[in-house]
Amino acid sequence: MELNIALLKGDGIGPEIVDSAVAVLEKTAAKFGHKFNFTPYLIGGCAIDETGLPLPQETVDGCLASDSVLLGAVGGPKWDGLAGDIRPEKALLGIRSAMGLYTNLRPAKLYPALRGASPLKDEIVGGGFDILIVRELTGGIYFGDRGYREGKYGTEAFDTEAYSVTEIERIGKAAFEAAMKRGKRLCSVDKANVLESSRLWRKTMHEMAESYPEVEYRDMFVDNAAMQLVRDPKQFDVIVTSNMFGDILSDEASQITGSIGMLASASLGASKRGLYEPIHGSAPDIAGTNAANPIATILSGAMMLRYSFGLAKEADTIEAAVDKALNDGHRTADLMGTDKGKPLTCTEMTEVILKNI
Ligand code: IPM
Ligand code: MG
Description:
Layout: E1 2-10, H1 14-32, E2 35-40, H2 45-51, H3 57-65, E3 68-73, H4 88-98, E4 103-109, H5 122-125, E5 130-136, E6 146-151, E7 154-159, H6 165-181, E8 185-190, H7 196-209, E9 216-221, H8 222-231, E10 238-241, H9 243-256, E11 264-268, E12 274-278, H10 295-307, H11 312-327, H12 346-355
Parallel strand pairs: 1-2, 1-3, 3-12, 5-10, 8-9, 8-10
Antiparallel strand pairs: 4-5, 4-11, 6-7, 11-12
């Protein structure tokens, strides 16, 4: 297959980790007789520096013309003082929305080899856990009405959480279908004891659950879900939730796996074209030091092969190469836990994974 991949390297460690993933994708393509063409576009702080805008139109057009998009990370202290509308993060929301990517899949699984890096006790993680968070990505408070107005205590700022049945149904469908392909257990997380939008969310999910009798469905309030994730993560298979709750719970889920540097994500819409990115940020503190863990981005590349291109064997090959690197004891700094010794650099870890392909 010949496929065109847009690269949005972004800021901080973004360029280092995307370069690692590209090397892995190229080696995989060569092994299986495919050709991947990579075209870089600007996004985030680097785009602001060069064009004045975090998401130039050329980037949007390039992504929409590609077969899929691989993104590193955006943002950094240099651009933190900018107004909300021209912050690097705005580009991320903008590209998700422009590409219609309403489904965000964030798998959080504990690698047996990294058990020691998880902050949870052995008796809690036991035989490991494997959770898929399905986060709604183009609605809710991230995209609702916002602004300033006069309130009871003077000028106030506001943001609005709103969800339509259509938006809930399409993310619900993605979650139920993901559950059917996995452990057939779905937990919908909301705050229906307080929020009207959550009550509509819950009602809609209940109606959908009737069409998926094989899926063991339940609801959970978000505060309880935050607690249950650290109390007993094994109870979860698939979690479906809103944009904001998914943002928060996926960081929590990533931390209990041992390192946020391990977690990949896929953002999908109605077409096969997706956007794939690590769930961690641009880590400005270690940018340029070659200390970043490239695995989350490499695994994001594997998800692209699987979900956008239907190349399951190729994706398996990359995932197995990462497993082997970890099982052989290779660790970047973030994965050291209590291990002694010298951690691998980003390029060294990439080399190890490349050798396993
Ligand atoms: C994420 C990030 C983004 C989000 C930020 C950077 C806008 O935290 O992808 O989880 O909140 O969606
Ligand atoms: Mg986040």
